[in-house]
C-alpha cells in the first residue's frame, strides 16, 4: 500500500502509537464482537473523523460516534468489520485506509466488545453520510482530541456497581460514553 507523506505531528503520532504496546485487556463481560474505525485524516493539521448518529436509530441515537458496528458472521477480523462499516456509514473506500493497528477492546453498555481500529485516510476523500445511520460527519483536530485534560470523569452508581463515564465537548458536539473512552485510551497510548 502506498504511504502518503505525513507532516511531523502525524509522523510523531504514528511512531508513538506503534511503539507503545496496547494496554492490558480488562476481562470482558461482553461476548458479542463489534469494531469501530478511528479515521485520522492526513491533513496538514491532522483530524479525527467523527459522526453524529441519526436520531431515528434504536441505540445511541444522536450520539457522537466513530463509524462502526457489530461483526458479521462473514467478517474475518475486527479490521474487516471496521472498514466495512466505515464504507457503509460514510463512504470511505476500504482500500484507501492505511491501517496502523488496533486498541484493546472496550465493553459497550449495550453488550458488545468493541475493538477500535486506527487508520489513516487521505485528505481528498469525499465523505458521504448514509442518512439512515448518520446525521452529520465532522472533524476534530487530532492534537485537541488527544489532550487528556479534555475528558471529565463522571462516576455513575447503579445497582451496587460504580461505572465511570468520560465527557468532553468540541464546539457544539458533546462527546461522551464509549467514544470518549476510546479517544482517551488512544491519547493515553500515545502520551509518552
From TrEMBL:
<feature type="domain" description="Nudix hydrolase">
    <location>
        <begin position="31"/>
        <end position="162"/>
    </location>
</feature>
<dbReference type="InterPro" id="IPR045121">
    <property type="entry name" value="CoAse"/>
</dbReference>
<dbReference type="InterPro" id="IPR000086">
    <property type="entry name" value="NUDIX_hydrolase_dom"/>
</dbReference>
<dbReference type="Pfam" id="PF00293">
    <property type="entry name" value="NUDIX"/>
</dbReference>
<dbReference type="InterPro" id="IPR015797">
    <property type="entry name" value="NUDIX_hydrolase-like_dom_sf"/>
</dbReference>
<dbReference type="InterPro" id="IPR000059">
    <property type="entry name" value="NUDIX_hydrolase_NudL_CS"/>
</dbReference>
<dbReference type="GO" id="GO:0009132">
    <property type="term" value="P:nucleoside diphosphate metabolic process"/>
</dbReference>
<protein>
    <submittedName>
        <fullName>NUDIX hydrolase</fullName>
    </submittedName>
</protein>
<keyword id="KW-0460">Magnesium</keyword>
<dbReference type="GO" id="GO:0030145">
    <property type="term" value="F:manganese ion binding"/>
</dbReference>
<dbReference type="GO" id="GO:0000287">
    <property type="term" value="F:magnesium ion binding"/>
</dbReference>
<keyword id="KW-0378">Hydrolase</keyword>
<keyword id="KW-0464">Manganese</keyword>
<comment type="similarity">
    <text>Belongs to the Nudix hydrolase family. PCD1 subfamily.</text>
</comment>
<keyword id="KW-0479">Metal-binding</keyword>
<dbReference type="GO" id="GO:0010945">
    <property type="term" value="F:coenzyme A diphosphatase activity"/>
</dbReference>
Amino acid at each position: 500500500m502506498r504511504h502518503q507523506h505525513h507532516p511531523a505531528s502525524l509522523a510523531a503520532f504514528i511512531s508513538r502509537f506503534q511503539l507503545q504496546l496496547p494496554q492490558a485487556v480488562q476481562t470482558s463481560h461482553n461476548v458479542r464482537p463489534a469494531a469501530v474505525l478511528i479515521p485520522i485524516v492526513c491533513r496538514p493539521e491532522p483530524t479525527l473523523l467523527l459522526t453524529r448518529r441519526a436520531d431515528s436509530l434504536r441505540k445511541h441515537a444522536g450520539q457522537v460516534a466513530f463509524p462502526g458496528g457489530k461483526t458479521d458472521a462473514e467478517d474475518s477480523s475486527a479490521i474487516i468489520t471496521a472498514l466495512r462499516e466505515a464504507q457503509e456509514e460514510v463512504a470511505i473506500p476500504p482500500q484507501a485506509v492505511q491501517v496502523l493497528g488496533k486498541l484493546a477492546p472496550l465493553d459497550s453498555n449495550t453488550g458488545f466488545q468493541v475493538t477500535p481500529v486506527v487508520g489513516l485516510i487521505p485528505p481528498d476523500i469525499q465523505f458521504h453520510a448514509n442518512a439512515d445511520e448518520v446525521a452529520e460527519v465532522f472533524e476534530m483536530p487530532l492534537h485537541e482530541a488527544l489532550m487528556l485534560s479534555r475528558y471529565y470523569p463522571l462516576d455513575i452508581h447503579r445497582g451496587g456497581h460504580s461505572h465511570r463515564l468520560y465527557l468532553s465537548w468540541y464546539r457544539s458536539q458533546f462527546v461522551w460514553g464509549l467514544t470518549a473512552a476510546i479517544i482517551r485510551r488512544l491519547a493515553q497510548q500515545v502520551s509518552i
